[in-house]
Design goal:
The structure holds two protein chains of two kinds.
Chain A: E1 4-13, E2 16-26, E3 31-36, H1 42-50, E4 57-62, E5 65-66, E6 75-78, H2 90-102, H3 111-127, H4 143-155, E7 161-165, H5 176-190, E8 193-197, H6 201-207, E9 210-216, E10 229-236, H7 247-255
Parallel strand pairs in A: 3-8, 3-9, 6-7, 7-8
Antiparallel strand pairs in A: 1-2, 1-4, 4-5, 9-10
Helix pairs in contact in A: 2-3, 2-4, 4-5
Chain B: H1 11-39, H2 49-61, H3 71-103, H4 105-120, H5 123-134, H6 138-163, H7 166-174, H8 179-216, H9 222-229, H10 235-263
Classes of the chains: A alpha/beta, B mainly alpha.
Chain lengths: 269, 270
């Protein structure tokens, strides 16, 4: 059972308010989709859940305990790209989480435990349709295959929360249908809570059990960074259809372009 | 008629073209040597192929009258031993420091400026100090190469670590990696091919520092021999030695390239 509570959360950078007064409660095994215009703090919010960014004010609680201030195995992440390990084969990429958590010193399982891990990995490879590519390197896979592997790599560790940052944004539109099927299947099997940032409103309605829309309530045209964004719509989606009456205003928000600096997921060191 | 940029030689002609400059150089040498020897049979500057072969036969196959050593092989093994030891130590330092600097911010902040400063000291300016402190033995010569090569290698490898996508480092942590595991399983394996690149690039300066150290204080070694026989204008020794040093460096480079291609198939440039 995973409960996530966000209380009066603010995030400010120097001279810039990114998020203001975000409040949220997410219950167990929800699929939360997050949409909003570019530069509206979606990614920053995900970074805070991941633990690479800390709130300026307010609280972020998982099962009423504050979130660890660094990434950990309870929260998996799937980035848009670059997250597979190029020096490991498909199988080794998948085994990595089990290796790291099962063997603190060597970071590599041996003997019987390795056999068990391989059996588990093979089952997952079957589920994501990559059995034939078991011994290939990531560079030899297509974008869709890489993304499926990246998702499976996180899922095998059975995180309580899985964070997806526009995971299908860089993929061929033709294969997103398969990807949706896969992510729903894994979500149902492993019972984790998912947060997914997306630009695709249709996708967010199809997949989610709850839709969050990030937007600025107040805008000062002279100082764009003066006010931050917050959750303007928090819509439980279970059973609702895509022709939901709020769709139009949300569409407007998502497609609005605001004159703000795009946050970079990783600021230069 | 296609543009010049779109025209590629066939395999056969590519090989011929690659060999051509060497043939031209050797021909020019032979022509010059012939012309000089025709006017003065005692000329020492451009010895004939026969003289070169005769001298080298003595060096490669016959024992030196005074020491009883076969000079060519004594020199080669002395020089190779120095350069291999120095490169091995430099590579170890490079990986150990580059890895920790690249991964751990505290180490990076502490060492970056220091290593940058060290790498800017001209190593040859330190040579007298090395001879004073470490004596005239092997240690000073090996140290000179290390001082010349290691700091640049450390900086290079630290930069290579910093080039790894941050997504990888974060993802590994969400899979449960500790700092140690991150270095062991994620960063270090990706550093090996880059280490080989760094070694290949540093071969040139390593040989430079080796020859310099041997020229000044040594009793055997390829660099020592060249500078010794210079007194007698013995071009028949110097020229083959230079060619041999070049061949050794080329072979080391080729071997490293081979290891990289064979052992790190994943890192093959696509």
């Amino acid at each position: 059972m995973t409960q996530i509570t966000v209380k009066r959360l603010w995030k400010e950078f120097e001279n810039q308010v990114v998020l203001e007064n975000v409040n949220l409660h997410v219950g167990d095994h929800e699929f939360v989709t997050i949409v909003g215009a570019s530069g509206c703090g979606k990614t920053t919010f995900l970074r805070m859940l991941l633990g690479v960014e800390s709130p300026t004010r307010g609280e972020l609680l998982i099962d009423s305990r504050p979130l660890a201030p660094e990434p950990g195995p309870d929260r998996g992440i799937v980035f848009q790209r670059y997250a597979l390990f190029p020096h490991l084969t498909v199988l080794d990429n998948l085994l990595l989480g089990l290796d790291l958590q099962g063997s603190r010193v060597l970071g590599r399982l041996g003997g019987l435990r390795r056999h068990e891990a391989i059996a588990k990995a093979d089952a997952l490879l079957e589920a994501i349709g990559l059995t034939a590519s078991r011994n290939k390197y990531p560079a030899q896979l297509s974008g869709g295959m890489q993304q499926r592997l990246s998702i499976a790599q996180s899922v095998i560790c059975e995180p309580k929360i899985l964070l997806l940052d526009e995971p299908f944004g860089a993929l061929d539109p033709g294969i997103t249908g398969d990807m949706h099927e896969l992510i729903l299947k894994l979500w149902n099997t492993h019972k984790m809570t998912i947060f997914m940032v997306t630009h695709d409103l249709k996708e967010s309605f199809q997949l989610g059990t709850r839709l969050l829309v990030f937007d600025r309530l107040r805008v000062d045209p002279q100082a764009q960074d003066r006010y931050g964004a917050t959750i303007t719509y928090n819509i439980p989606l279970k059973g609702r259809r895509i022709d939901y009456p709020l769709l139009e205003p949300i569409k407007e928000i998502v497609h609005a372009t605001r004159e703000v600096k795009m946050p970079v997921f990783f600021p230069p060191r | 008629m296609r543009r010049l940029v779109n025209r590629h030689p066939t395999k056969g002609s590519a090989l011929f073209l690659a060999v051509l400059p060497f043939i031209l150089l050797i021909s020019a040498y032979l022509a010059g040597s012939n012309a000089r020897l025709a006017t003065n049979p005692g000329d020492k500057l451009l010895p004939s192929p026969a003289t070169l072969a005769h001298t080298m036969h003595q060096y490669v196959f016959e024992e030196d009258e005074r020491s009883g050593d076969i000079l060519f092989w004594t020199d080669t093994s002395a020089s190779l031993k120095r350069i291999v030891i120095a490169l091995a130590i430099s590579a170890t330092l490079g990986v150990a420091l580059g890895l920790t600097m690249g991964v751990i911010p505290y180490v990076r902040v502490t060492l970056t400026a220091f290593i940058a400063a060290i790498s800017l000291i001209p190593p040859l300016a330190l040579l007298p100090i090395l001879f004073i402190v470490a004596g005239l033995g092997e240690l000073a010569k090996v140290l000179l190469i290390i001082i010349g090569v290691a700091p640049i290698m450390v900086r290079d490898l630290a930069l290579r670590v910093a080039e790894l996508p941050p997504e990888q480092i974060i993802k590994a942590q969400t899979l449960g990696a500790s700092t140690w595991q991150l270095m062991l399983r994620i960063v270090m394996p990706q550093l090996w091919p880059r280490l080989i690149d760094a070694l290949r690039l540093s071969l040139g300066s390593a040989w430079l520092f080796l020859i310099a150290a041997e020229a000044i204080a040594s009793t055997e070694g390829l660099g020592y021999r060249i500078f010794l026989v210079r007194r007698y204008l013995a071009m028949d020794v110097i020229l083959p030695y230079v060619a041999w040093i070049t061949l050794l460096a080329f072979t080391m480079d080729a071997l490293l390239r081979l290891v990289r291609a064979k052992a790190f198939a994943w890192a093959r440039p696509s």
